[in-house]
Amino acid sequence: MKNAFHTSIQYLKGVGPKRAKAFNKLGIYTIEDLLYYFPRRYQDRTKFSAISQLQEGQNYTIKARILARGQRQSFRKRGFSITEAAVADGSGKLFCVWFNRPYLEDYLKVGRELIFYGKVERYGNRLQMNSPEFEFVSGEDSADTAQFVPVYPLPEGVTQRYFRRSIKQALEEFLPRVNDFLPYDIRAKNNLLNLARSLINIHFPENLRMQKEAYERLAFEEFFLFQLPILLRKAKKKARCGVAHNIKGPLSGAFIRSLPFKLTAAQARVLQEIIRDMASPQPMQRLLQGDVGSGKTVVATAACIVTIQGGYQAAFMVPTEILARQHYINIKNQISKIKDGKDLKIGLLTSSLNKKEKEKTYQEIEDGKIDLIIGTHALLEEEVEFNNLGLAVIDEQHKFGVGQRALLPKKGPNPDVLIMTATPIPRTLAITLYGDLDISVIDELPAGRLPVKTLHLTRKEKKKAYSLARGQLSQGNQAYIIYPVIDESYALDIAGAKKMYERLKAAEFKGFKLGLIHGRLKQKEQDLIMTQFRKRKLDLLVSTTVLEVGIDIPGATCMIIEHAQRFGLAQLHQLRGRIGRGSKESFCVLISEAVGSEESAARLEAMVRYADGFRIAEEDLKIRGPGEFFGKRQSGLSELKIANPLTQMHLLKKAREALQRLIGSDPRLEMHQNLLLKERLLQRFPEYEQLMLVG
Length: 695
Ligand code: ADP
Ligand code: MG
What we know:
The chain has 695 residues and is an alpha/beta fold. It is 39% helix and 18% strand. Residues 261, 263-264, 267, 290, 292-298, 422, 446, 552, 554, 581 line the site of adenosine-5'-diphosphate.
């Protein structure tokens, strides 16, 4: 039986092939698409404002009659028209103005009564609405006369009235033929409205309470469908058989004892969580969250040692060559300090190796000679074949695409997987997005760390920043100055790292040893500069964002970020995370234009105010919204049209609990009451047919 909801929009009464095209442009192809195109707001038709009561700066809905209208050309811009109408409602007069929409004149007939919605401005003693939305007052159509009338986000040329009528038509014609795919017991348990009543009330609410119930049901539904495939995938992965690692061998204990510091309580706890997973034959799928500088690397290294002591290989993938080399040097050094550690072989694989070096490394990985391989995306090359990969670590996961992350573990028979990120997010959100992973959090920094002092200066006050940096250098500390670009741009008025390096060397930082690093330098040159800086042969590093992730040089205590308004909040936090890694007090100076956008001001303000990555992530989420924050396509969050994971955590949790019960009792969705849900899932993700057969 074909689901009536999947009927093409063109078969809806009053549409037809030509008008269907206009719907298609809005992403509406089927009746279902149409009914899931939700209103942006509602107009309360019982409450029109009187023109005499309007305050400037506010939004109002008014009902008024057109007194006069006219059209003129703009003097400033050629070919640009301005349409004006004077309207009145008995209490007062108002002007409405539209820009470059000449065809509006046909609608604005003198004497006609219309409903206008928009923001009121005042110009002298004249009240005006700029580009207000407007529509006809008409008695004949119930879609327009209810108390709450939906207002949809529509482009030019599709009228609210026509759209409303189409929705009404679709509801009347198709709702009686549609069954709710959410199983009854889930609806009952969570007090959810059924689908038909929800769709009616989201479009044409009987009253505000029903609108709210409809909204909750549809948001629950979105969260539910969003998490369903994620949780099915998790159940499937858990059912596989992987490696039960030897967690009792001598090497792992010796490694922890050989460290020059004691693990923080949080590191120790998280390591236990990881080790417990590794002991079990179920493949580990764990996400390790920890703020910049919280010491994730050493935890991951310990997991690698556990892997090796049982005779398996470990792979450690990072997003940049600089970071790969740093990890390689540090880990090799740490391991050399353990008793029997010298027998362990660590390898490095990046794309800048020459052909011969690469081939040698491939061979050693394949023969099992290399126990731990550290590398970049180069690890994903087809030529890389492991002898027996037991653990895949992915550092700074947000720098990899979803597909790339999945590739490394495919190089072994169900290896354990540890994914690391320094972008901590609220827990409920994390389990939604990364629902197929278990989550560990390092919520503590090593003892003795001081929060970085952060200042925000304007470009005019730049000298202060340089003098602060000079002060730090004179005390034997090191510093970074970050630019958004390599080459300056006159058009955008941005300074670039290359020119500034020359200038700073000759002027403000004369007498100090400066280095320049950016992504266009050859890998060998970048390595050389980093080594010199690490060995304190350089005082100051002028850089672009190649240093953004992972770099760990405890001697650096100062960072100046120029044109800071051009960076995102997460990026600024990552950059700032390069300092404050030792026990000395560190300083970060953000330099920006005096006036920036509101959003960039909010970002810089958050940086000054908060040091904690969790707080910053929350602010960032608030400023940008979840879709932008996680990257639209990557996270799939754009599928959430009305559900908001930040403000509706309770619904999100309920949906998750319902899913866990459902998958626990019917993992293949075979029971009679779950068949419609299964159909709904397969319609969106046909590949789950396969998954459910196996799972
Ligand atoms: P991130 O979590 O940002 O990857 P790293 O693993 O690079 O952090 O660690 C930051 C610095 O802290 C490194 O220099 C590391 O050696 C050091 N470190 C890690 N754990 C501890 C600890 N328990 N006590 C003191 N220093 C530590
Ligand atoms: Mg790191």
